[in-house]
Design goal:
Number of domains: 2
Radius of gyration: 20 Å
CATH superfamily of the largest domain: Glycogen Phosphorylase B
Distance between the termini: 37 Å
CATH architecture of the largest domain: 3-Layer(aba) Sandwich
Helix content: 40-55%
Number of helices: 16
Order of helices and strands: EHEHEHEHEHEHEHHEHHEHEHEHEEHHH
Largest sheet: 7 strands, parallel
Shape: globular
Strand order of the largest sheet: 3-2-1-4-5-6-7
Strand content: 5-15%
Length: 373
């Protein structure tokens, strides 16, 4: 592959590579604190405005310095294109370090491109493990962890996972999870939340908030149909902001009729989603980020998945439901003592830190690049 001539790079510049809604949210504080040192590279893995552009605006982030366009492809096509495009960009303008976040195709592609160019690699949110090799995300996070020069683990549990895989202790730092920093700052006040509920025609603590997008739930017609049936039968309104991937599957499978009992709406911005999460009776989701956000807004989350890489919230803020057939029973259990459950959760701290994770991450990144010495 032919690459462009190398561009002179300011000392200590850090390439921050991201391409999905969760990555934008979780890297916003790091980008802000890095200031002029940050060069943002947006892969376009999420190419829908509702999953990307609106989050730049809400988080007050400048437009990305570099935009790629790898969305709308298969996983293998995305990874191949990401590595090629990122290698070209990073070779043209070699940074002091490359930062990737989480378990996305963008994170894995960024890690491989940095490794190919022998650039120092930082993995934010390192060490998460579901131990479920059927999850594409599990492979992505393992690749990034083992290639990283610096693994920024959100919890001690994540650190232990890394040590168990023979990643040296000197390459690991525990920082907390950066989602706490952002979510705690952006949760709307009571007045704004009340306006959101009025707009949707629901009452406080009397509706469920549902999000589903993972392949295990939405790529199988029988499981997706069963999930829609169970959601429609719940004894309270279900607000369902529909991920573009999920909407496409519902239409392709001809399941529109089975979703008629749900309040299906386009994806919300982050502030609106947090506001609804703070007012709902409980959350229903297959999202990893929602499990973390539940610990910030102090609401129970019913996680409809075979496995989770976030065991820190299971048994407190979250309950794992691998089988859709068990969903109604678990919902009944949550509703039975809902006010007491809300009170109990309101007194529990988030296991993901104190809201200063971004600051700690940046300190370690600057030390790696000699910028903090």
């Amino acid at each position: 592959m032919t690459t462009s001539p190398t561009t002179r790079v300011p000392d200590g510049e850090v390439a921050v590579v991201f391409g999905t809604r969760p990555e934008i949210i979780k890297l916003a504080g790091i980008i802000d604190l890095l200031g002029d040192r940050a060069r943002t590279v947006y892969s376009g893995q999420h190419f829908d405005r509702g999953l990307s552009e609106i989050f730049f605006e809400e988080l007050q982030l400048a437009p990305p310095d570099v935009r790629l366009a790898v969305g709308g492809r298969t996983r293998a096509q995305q990874l191949g294109e990401l590595v090629l495009r990122l290698e070209e960009e990073l070779a043209r303008r070699r940074p002091a370090a490359v930062v990737v976040q989480g378990d996305t195709n963008t994170a894995a592609g960024g890690a491989l491109a940095a490794n190919a160019l022998e650039l120092p690699l930082v993995h934010v949110e390192a060490g998460l493990r579901s131990f479920d090799r059927r999850m594409p995300e599990e492979h992505n996070r393992v690749v990034a962890d083992h290639l990283a020069d610096l693994c920024l683990a959100p919890t001690d549990t994540a650190r232990r996972h890394l040590l168990a895989e023979q990643i040296p202790d000197e390459r690991i730092e525990v920082t907390g999870n950066t989602v706490v920093d952002v979510a705690a700052r952006l949760v709307p006040d009571a007045g704004e939340r009340a306006a959101l509920l009025d707009q949707l025609g629901v009452c406080p603590a009397d509706f469920a908030l549902a999000t589903f997008h993972r392949p295990e739930n939405v790529d199988d017609v029988e499981r997706l149909g069963a999930l829609l049936d169970e959601l429609s039968r719940l004894p309270l309104p279900v607000v369902f902001p529909v991920h573009p991937r999920t909407r496409q599957r519902i239409c392709a499978f001809g399941l529109e009729d089975r979703a008629e009992g749900l309040l299906m709406v386009p994806p919300f911005g982050y502030r609106a989603f947090l506001g609804l999460a703070a007012e709902c009776a409980f959350l229903l989701s297959d999202s990893g980020g929602v499990q973390e956000e539940a610990s910030v807004v102090k609401r129970p989350a019913i996680v409809v998945r075979r496995s989770t890489e976030r065991p820190e919230v299971v048994g407190t803020f979250a309950v794992l439901v691998p089988s859709v057939a068990d969903l109604a029973r678990v919902v009944d259990e949550v509703l039975t003592d809902l006010p007491a459950r809300h009170r109990r959760l309101s007194g529990l701290p988030s296991p993901y830190g104190d809201g200063r994770a971004s600051q700690r991450c940046v300190e370690h990144i600057l030390q790696l690049t000699n910028g903090g010495r």
